[in-house]
């Protein structure tokens, strides 16, 4: 029998042979051999000492076997589990202890250390606590010392660096290694371009990049920024075949982490880093595979671009409305108690730096709502239950009885009409394309302001008579002699629209003309222009045939009775002419690859080539008394009309303009809505517009949404419409610092730029740009008057003034239902006991799509179709079509004149500060008190970051499911009726997406209308219906941008869905209505052809759910 020593040597040789044939290793044979070696070591002390002795190769062979095992395990499916078992059995600790033991030998065995670190680098990836174990065990220090002693031993350096990488996810380890001099050590390893040891250099850069994620380590590396830039340039110059992109990206990653701190950004600028990365990046643009380098370079340059404050004297709104009651702790008091100049301080803090993915340039993923892990979800079950007691005494609510006359109406005296609101007599200016006259300042003049020039007399529309020819050939508008008529020649330039001689004449062409044989020609086909060297005429399209609810004369009358803080005296053309939806579909814009990167590089050029920048202010509401006279080299801007918003325009290049939006009144933020006029353009010139003070971190402008433009030349040619337009559209973070005061206390925030390019097609045109289809308060008043004219004797329509707003505008409240068939007791009883539906809209002024949906709802309700009549017979509708008239009038995006978001005031609204919310909630409280709570409450909104139309509702059960709180089944008992209406809409409305709906209640939404009406009023079907500002990604309208036609259609389909809901909730009663017998087939016909099948599993069985 061989001796134990000979046996051990034989087994070791067999194991070594297996290692050499590692690709063909039979795991079972290896296991048998190692088991025998283990038995010998455990039973024969002498054999154990001989195997681990310095001159023996036994330990090396065993480690090599382990390394082969790890490599093979990682390469086969499921092999990672074997390593997991090895870790769970303490394998990591044993290997780390072997490192300690091997380090005590003098000198340590290089082969053993090499194999140990090779195994540890792989095993450590599967051990979450590897870094902590290595530090506490002392093996981490051994590895660092090994590095320091073997800087020229590239074979040993590589596995040691890999072990450091595995340890670095631990922040404590990163700091510890920095203190131990590892950062400086890494700069001794990396170097300029070389074809040798590229694998080692790649690992070294990755390790250094991981180290520099620690701010303390980044501070240590600041002095090496010039070195990194030099190395990067050297690799860029020499790596002409782009074989070492990963090394170049590793250098940029190190720079990216260093520039996360203020000192690093300063060092980068001082080392001319902006110019270096700009030049190297532009040289890479033609090679698509170099995009990772370009994107990372762009991130670094954007981060290091010196932070600037917005080019404004203050970020507060240029307009101010004095509140009669200012709560001491409210937002307005805080805003105006700020010391002068302290509201917009540039913040260079390193705190709260927004993390950005390296591929955020071109591969952005559209945001989705994921409730999993959402800390905002309400977890208090008591707050998810309806309140059982009413918060206000009934005696206090009785005053609201007058808004519910229909509940006690006996129809013996008929229904009385609501008196019209008194009209103002202030002058209103006819829309013109002239060089804009200086406006009357609405804010206190600033020191050093230019003297105010003589005001230009406004053209008073009260002096204008508009008469239409009986033969239908044209409209002629005549005015009495006006004192400002002599100035008209100076005001009208290019587009002939107002008389140049004598009294102003406003002539309009009709939308439908009679041809030679009496046939009709639609406005879209009429493009004739009258030209005269003696007299210019403004063709005002008569859109009556195409827009039955629009009347320019009536609109002007409505404007006269509208109160605004800036005291607007002009009317915008689109609001005056009206909008006819285009017949063609407008597709979601396909984003051109690289467009955002190109725009950002153009911004960076401003810093690199400052002499190319004009920086010329061409429009400024803060200094209105200094008109710009430039000889026609710049565009002219205007936003001083109802719902307009543009504060400042700065010409930065010949055809490029930076635009600054105005904050909501009595606020210092909420910049999103825009609506402004542009004139003086050149045909064919490539204009670029940059809105530079957007606040949201992402936008549908990155996913195919376009801005809206209205061309006056197109309008007078018979095509009065808003169209989607613009190219090279993108949305990205810019270098304008957002004050922590405006950012809710968060530091290190920046504004965002929304940029688009535009080429104009008409000379001397006047164009308007808007965030979405404008719908002004005066438009609403005009539509309501026109709807009143459509009322038939069978329709019950009453318009009340719910309250007056802070700005002195009335808030209309509509009641719509069907008149009783007779005055018999049965009919009157049926009339009074109809269930109520309560609808509201436009609490956020910038969500104009909500008003277009409401317009569709109102037109359907007032229509003459059998379905509309049945709907009126089925319900009593109470509608507040515009909850925030002041915000709409003054061009706000989110707030009312109180400077607050009204949809966050429903829990405790103030009658002084939030009158529309206070009184609307009071109406609902009154209904709850008399046991007539609405069957459905729905608040119409617009959504800026999602596609499709969808609903938010309220569900106790679904909210609890999204959290970790425990609740018994009886606590979660809930009727699923809240899902019925969204389900119906998903079946019939092409734009509606059930998959986008959510019924989870979040803490941040607890003061919204939807949640408060659900919880306090007890309305189970309490919804917010959100309409996209962009378009649809499912159904019939997939790939299309949404327009007013689709929005109005959605409003009408909501009404039809209520009919289906009525049938489901009380089928026996509805069968008595003759008109509803065909509702089922009608729904089948209108059902979306491309309806989605990926509905929520809980709703698949709800098609016939009864509540």
UniProtKB/TrEMBL annotation:
Residues 1098-1107 have a biased composition (Polar residues). It comes from Oncorhynchus mykiss (Rainbow trout). Keywords: Carboxypeptidase, Cytoplasm, Hydrolase, Metal-binding, Metalloprotease, Nucleus, Protease, Zinc. Its cofactor is Zn(2+). Its main location: cytoplasm. GO terms for molecular function: metallocarboxypeptidase activity; zinc ion binding. It catalyses: (L-glutamyl)(n+1)-gamma-L-glutamyl-L-glutamyl-[protein] + H2O = (L-glutamyl)(n)-gamma-L-glutamyl-L-glutamyl-[protein] + L-glutamate; C-terminal L-alpha-aminoacyl-L-glutamyl-L-glutamyl-[tubulin] + H2O = C-terminal L-alpha-aminoacyl-L-glutamyl-[tubulin] + L-glutamate. GO terms for biological process: proteolysis. The gene is agtpbp1. The active site is at residue 1026. One of its GO terms (cellular component) is cytosol. Its EC number is 3.4.17.24. Residues 342-389, 1087-1107 are annotated as: Disordered. It is found in: Cytoplasm, Cytosol; Nucleus. It holds the Pfam family TPR_CCP1_N. This is Cytosolic carboxypeptidase 1. PANTHER family: CYTOSOLIC CARBOXYPEPTIDASE, CYTOSOLIC CARBOXYPEPTIDASE 1. Residues 344-366 have a biased composition (Acidic residues). It is an enzyme of class 3 (hydrolase). Coiled coil: none annotated. InterPro entries: ARM-like (IPR011989), CBPC1/4 (IPR033852), Cytosolic_carboxypeptidase (IPR050821), Pepdidase_M14_N (IPR040626), Peptidase_M14 (IPR000834). Residues 773-1062 form the Peptidase M14 domain. Residues 367-389, 1087-1097 have a biased composition (Basic and acidic residues). Belongs to the peptidase M14 family.
